[in-house]
Amino acid sequence: MAVADGTRYYPLRSPALPRRRQAARIRAGRRANRVGLAMAAILVAFLLGLFYLTQTVRVAAINYDIDGLITQRDQMTQQIQSLQGDIATLGAEISVTRRAQELGLNPLGAPRWVRGR
Question: Are 92 and 86 in contact (CB under 8 A)?
């Protein structure tokens, strides 16, 4: 079917073109560059490796800090036990009296009581 416009005929439909078999990016000359894909893959692998390395170093540093704190706690526990033993030994009445006599002090006599009024 055509429409007459003066002396020319314009068809209502355009003639069917043969179907294109190639993808649009190939027709446009934009094929995937294998070198670019390889570089992108290497970059992603490098970034993942770097992330893994930073996490591993961070965990190792934290474990090192924890080990140092555990060692410090054990040393403090031993020091507390040693000081408690010294207190028990030096706090006994016999050792106090002996140390006082070494310093030249004499024991007191019997206590004297003063009555209040």
Answer: no
